[in-house]
Amino acid sequence: MERKDFSKPEYYKNRELSWLLFNTRVLEEARDKAIPLFERIKFLSITSSNLDEFFMVRVASLKDMVNAEYEKADIAGMTPMEQLDAINKETHEFVNMQYTTYNRSLLPALKGEKLNLIRSHEELTEEQKNFVDVFFMENVYPVVTPMAVDSSRPFPLIRNKSLNIGALLTKKGEGEELEFATVQVPAVIPRIVPLPDGTEGEKNVILLEEVIERNIDKLFLSYNVICAHPYRVMRNADLSIEEDEAEDLLKEIEKQLKKRQWGEAIRLEVEETIDKRLLKILKKELLIKEEDIFKIAGPLDLTFLMKLYGMEGFDRLKYPKYKPQQVPEIQEGESIFKQIREGDILLHHPYQTFDPVVDFIKQASRDKDVLAIKQTLYRVSGNSPIIAALAQAAENGKQVSVLVELKARFDEENNIVWARMLEKAGCHVIYGLVGLKTHSKITLVVRKEEDGIRRYVHLGTGNYNDATAKLYTDLGLLTCSERIGADATAVFNMLSGYSEPKSWNALSLAPIWLRDKFVSLIKRERDNALQGKKAHIIAKMNSLCDKGIIETLYEAAAAGVKIELIIRGICCLKVGIPGVSENITVRSIVGNFLEHSRIYYFYDNGNEEIYMSSADWMSRNLDRRVEILFPIEDEKLKKQVMHILEVQLSDTVKARLLMEDGTYERVDKRGKALLNSQEYFCQEAVKAKKEQERKETERIFIPEESIEEKETEDDESMHI
Q: Can 439 be counted among the known catalytic residues?
């Protein structure tokens, strides 16, 4: 095959611009009138929280590069300054689309459903004004702290992401000299304030900042309020930790977390109608450039819509709540260890319940034959039953070792709390590794049994978080495979000490071995294609932006390998480049659940191999994190995973295809059945549970002599 240069910048999409395209796909869900109204406002809220994190981390990092005069281009050939310019343009257009959606589509639709979100306190009726004024004096006035700025009182530190109201004042009876003051909208009071119901049962609500703005004169009794407008500051929240010099990583992270509130201001949101004099003061004091100011045609910070989503009485405007179903292979009340010994078990969340993972650790904590429990924790829920079970296990005398990743972004504070709690309970706690994030999801239970020591392992693509397991699509494996058990022991020995195995039985780990493993798997398909054999790769992940992996994929595609990618978010690969990526398709599925599982399939000349992982094809996952790739070896489970991939590749409702021009378009439905993969999996899980219940009922009521005959019939029908 002619050697081509697959590293040309024009073959790659900039990572940040690709992420903005992903957030646009989320926004499209908010604009889709086929989706229930309250689900649409939820999606709009998600776009806002997504954008906040994007600015605090990614944009902040680029600004740091520009400030440091770092000019190295990215894989798409863009310098940090060029990236910032492009992001700025795209983001302003995106924010305009957000508020067009909010003002022109969602607000009128909500009003049509008798929920009126009053935009301005000036629109209130007399009755509502009286109610708001009383509410302010009784609930808000005792909490707020007005802060004036003068020669003796400097401009206050404005906290990251806090909502504030800036005001210009003149002292009564002392001329026209303007003074600046600011009031932080208190986060301890709900931002959505219910008003008395209107005629015909219409519910009215107003935002807290409007209540404060109407009554702001009560905070400055000796002054005339010339104007008052909300504003919001976004700051650099990308932690910078010198781990090698930090004697105690936990204390160093706690120190850095405090700085996050006061990092460099990188974005200022203001009301579209803000007084120019007030904006000039904010711009000067916050050291904000003109291009970093966003003038908003509506309420700042649309994340409040998630609270609106939670209002009672509007279930008819939401998707029916889905209850994760029982895993057919796991019977409640029975020993989970016995059931794992009967065969590997695949877990598919949130379609199937996360309870088996929690029960795995709970049963281990109580089981007299369990000697040790070892686990990695990246993100856990606020009231985690897994943390409680680990603490109980230690109190019951088990050997419990837990790696708590303190550097899990925006979960650092939670993880510090959990780490200390586990230590107090007697667990051996490791605070991650210097220079690396431990992102792998693995639990090892060591149990003494009649035939010796047996190791039980859970491996997953998602976090040990029982709350997000109801919202994120993830896969898990419960196994007592000796090969995987031995590798799991080696993983924990490596994490807690300095033991680095020379070879692995089944697992592959980043940052040392995983990149080479993926490259060799892709190149094997390439070599098969060059020999005229069928070659096929299917890969599902959150993001693809590693240049080395993309180059290898281009090389394989050019050799004739059929490559089908399912990528929810960032994709720096381009499709349809002649002689480079004509054999590659990319689809993104954005639906009611967040697609989070990572699955990697390689045809291997008919010896199909399937892997699952905590890792995306990103440089950070392959080079700077501890990640695990694990194989699916059981043939029955392989078919289950292939079924998942095939259904997603057939999605015609929530899938969008990456086009040659870099945009995403919905799948052409002409001549195709409508298939929403997430709904399909929900229905499939419900059906499987009902089938399991039917079989259990038959076992109870069918005479014993008929059971063996019935099971044979079932086996045959399933075979067909």
A: yes
